Automatic annotation (TrEMBL):
Lineage: Eukaryota, Sar, Stramenopiles, Ochrophyta, Bacillariophyta
Signal peptide range in chain numbering: none
Region of interest called Disordered, as start-end residue ranges on this chain: 29-59
Name used for this protein in its record: DEP domain-containing protein
PROSITE patterns (alphabetical): DEP
Stored InterPro entries: DEP_dom, WH-like_DNA-bd_sf, WH_DNA-bd_sf
Species for this entry: Cyclophora tenuis
Amino acid sequence: HEAYVGGLQNTLAFLQTWTKDRYEQQIAARPDSSDARLEVPSNSSSSNHNQQQPRKRQSLSSFVRKPLYNITLPDGTDVMTVTVMERLKSELPLETRRYHLTDYKRCCRGRDIVETIQRIYSVPHEEEATKFAQYLQYRKVIHHVCDDGHLVEKNDKFFRLQCHHTPSILNTYCIWTEKNVTS
């Protein structure tokens, strides 16, 4: 705030010179590290054979193809949990519902879940859709609003997606289990 900087172009020019000056003062003015581990590797054949060979990096695509948390859809394909949750989040009729003077936000009925699964995953029979909904409940994608242990069926009990169920944690898409917390 030492000088008036003016408009956008002046501000950008000021920031570029400030960044360059800061780099020269704080980074370029320091001597290079003498640590051999930080040196640029050479391709010469006269390198020391006693040194460890660098490990080959796995490509990112190998991790993308094998996600840690898969959900097997009714047609047998594996997709990531977040994909199923986002699809259900966009398709389910999530509303605030009242039961015994308690409001349950962003929830839906069991019958809505079964009908939505039949529609979006092309499941012809209601029993198959109910089994898949119970599988999603077992995988903790769907919860009963009170965690009473009610199974998803074609009924009027209220259920909520995991991403709406535990808003007190930062990553609501991760299924938090004891294994995740302790490791």
